[in-house]
Structure formats: C-alpha cells, structure tokens
Specification:
By secondary structure, this protein is an alpha+beta fold. Helices cover 31% and strands 24% of the residues. It folds into two domains: 166 residues, Immunoglobulin-like (Sandwich), CATH 2.60.40; 105 residues, no CATH class.
Length: 305
C-alpha cells in the first residue's frame, strides 16, 4: 500500500467520521444557570412557594437531555431497576422542577423519588429530539447535576455529570478582541508612544504624522480612545456616587474590576467558559426560561445561552 493511500485513510479519523451502524446515545448538557428571585438577608421578607415553603433565593438550572444517536430511545429500553435518574448534591435543596419537550406530542414527566433525586420518564425520543428540564434550587446555582441509568442498546454508559455549555466561536472571538483592546490600552499604547517619541518626536506626531508608520498610529489612537472611555466611565460613576449617601451601593459596584474582566476573557478564550451575568427577576422583570407554550422544532444547541 502506498504512503499516500495510508494517509488518505487517516482523514476520516481526523475529521470525525460519523458512525454508520445503529446506536443509541443520550447526552446531558447544562444550558443555563440563572437567578429567578433573590432577597438579601437584611430584607425582612421571604419567597414562598405554593406549598408554603420559605426561601431567600431561588435559582434555576436548565438541563438538556438529548438523543444524539441514530435510533429512537423508548421507555421500554429502561429496566425497572435502572431508570433514568437526575441527581443534585444532597446539601442543595430542590425547590421545584419542570420538563419541557421539543414537541407537545412527546409524553414526558418528572417524579421526585428523594429530596435530591428525580426520575425522568418519556414515551420515546427520536434521533436529535430532546427535552429541557428546569431544576429550581435554593442555595448553590453552580451545583453539579449528575445523570445515571441504563437502557437497552446504549453505546456508552449514561452515568455522567452534565456538561457545561462551552463558549461559541463568536464568543471566543469577542473575548480575543476585547483582550487586544485592553492590552493595547495598557502596555502597548505607551510602548508605541515611547517609540514614536524616541524615533520621530512629538512634533512630527502633531504636525506631520504621515511619516509615522500606520501600525504605531493605530495603536496609539486606539489606546487613547480606550483611556478616554475609561476616564469618562469613572467620572460618571463618581458624579453618580455624589448623589447618594456614602457607602450606598450602585449597579456599577457589582461589576467586575478590570483585572477580573481580563481573567474572565482569558477563561472564555482558552477554556471556553461562558461568563454568566444574571440579575434578580425583581430588577428587570424578565423570565429566565420559556414557559409552557407551543415550541417549534429547533436545534438543541439553540437553547444554549
């Protein structure tokens, strides 16, 4: 066999050749984590559910259960001893739950079997069909969600911790672009300005800038704009603070500092971590997940936010 033919046979392995044989596979993915309602300890009120239970905070975890195989998975595939179980940490209270199918015709339900465990039932899921489960918890919105069970014809063990959604290519590009702007405004802008001063002088920068290389001018001009925006935001914040008593918190006080933002952009760019920015429902009055209504056919990835 020629070397070229051997190399050609390796291409399917590198480019992810799809499986042609029949197989069944269920995947679990976290699609969002949001605040539903949250009250600080200093406020003398509590959140009460229909059963009368009282809480200081309610958070929702969106969980996607997705048939990524090429065969339907039915309720008969699950033995009675190994049903499909969704489990959270025992120290986190499960305040409520709900399930939303991709089609209204899909019959599915959740049953609470322990304080931190749910049993998911559905009639069947065709290939690429899915259900979205809403888990309402009371303490840690970042608690891991574990899936376990066993069904006939499974390609891989279903026992797993639900995967966190990774940042998309566009989100990584935005993080990369913001990092360029931030680092250009801090060290690169001053380095370029010093290089211009040493080699050309500030007189040429003011009177005859056409003789200065464009990459130096663009670095300086972009850095100056970023610094002006930063100074403007700080001045606006200072004047807004003057309107209130000392120590009164503003929305800007909840924002990440500049180095915290740099760290967040690095995590998004290199590790695919999504930066979750969520505020209380009382602040914005916006729902965090779709309620019960007719849902048109969508790709499962459309749920990831």
């Amino acid at each position: 066999m020629s070397p070229l033919l051997k190399i050609a046979r390796l291409f399917p392995a590198f480019f992810g050749k799809k499986k042609s044989h029949p197989f069944k596979k269920l995947e679990a993915k976290i699609i969002n984590r949001c605040i539903v309602a949250e009250l600080p300890e200093v406020i003398p009120f509590k959140i009460v559910n229909e059963a009368g239970d009282q809480y200081k905070g309610i958070y929702v975890i969106g969980l996607l259960i997705w048939n990524t195989g090429n065969q339907a998975i039915t309720k008969k595939d699950f033995p009675k001893k190994n049903p499909l179980i969704i489990e959270i940490d025992k120290n986190t209270e499960l305040a409520g739950y709900d399930v939303i199918p991709v089609y209204e015709e899909i019959s599915c339900s959740l049953e609470k079997i322990e304080t931190n465990k749910l049993r998911l039932r559905f009639d069947f899921l065709n290939p690429q069909e899915y259900v979205v489960i809403q888990l309402f918890v009371t303490s840690d919105p970042y608690v891991p969600v574990n899936i376990c069970g066993r069904f006939s014809g499974q390609e891989e063990p279903i026992d797993q911790t639900a995967l966190e959604a990774k940042a998309s290519l566009s989100e990584r590009f935005i993080a990369f672009f913001m990092l360029i702007l931030i680092f250009n405004a801090m060290p690169v802008c001053f380095i370029a300005l010093g290089f211009i001063y040493v080699n050309y002088g500030f007189d040429m920068l003011i009177n005859d800038m056409d003789k200065i290389p464009s990459y130096l001018l663009s670095s300086v001009s972009t850095g100056v704009i970023m610094w002006l925006l930063f100074i403007y935001s700080r001045l606006t914040y200072w004047f807004e603070k003057k309107k209130y008593p000392k120590g009164y918190p503003l929305m800007a006080d909840l924002e990440l500092p500049i180095w915290g933002s740099v760290k967040a952009f690095f995590n998004t760019l290199f590790f695919g971590k999504k930066q979750r920015v969520s505020v209380s429902l009382f602040n914005w009055g916006e729902p965090v997940l779709l309620s019960h209504r007719k849902v048109p056919r969508k790709n499962a990835n459309d749920w990831v936010i």
